[in-house]
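User: quick one, fold this
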Amino acid sequence: YMGVPTVVTCSRLMSLATWQNALLAGGSAFLLYCLWFDQKRRSDPDYKTKVMQRRRAQRQTVSSAPTAGEADVSQEQMQQLFIREIQLGQELMESDPETSSKHFANAVRMHSDPMQIAGMIRANATPEVFALMLRELQGQ
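Assistant:
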């Protein structure tokens, strides 16, 4: 093999040209399909309304996104509401266990780590209130 020169035969050139032609034809067919599909999509009577609705929805989500100050305020409000729910649950534990359990359940739903809060409530609340709270959470 080392001293023998490689000869490119006519049949080998034909197969290479055939592959090139096949790839060219396939690529052209794919491009034509893409152009046809785009034309078909754009000629749909609802195309413009769908595009406008999508753009309007995107603008609304961008404009309704809270700024840094608004996010901080809502976070503070959530913390205050969470603390208020815990306080109400503790205050009503002896006099109204059912309402107390609802306030504790609300606090568990609000918190980012519900298992931690449920454990804290279990340690500090009466077994009756804790059981009612679990029923309330299961009924979500």
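User: anything notable?
Assistant: The mean pLDDT is 84.
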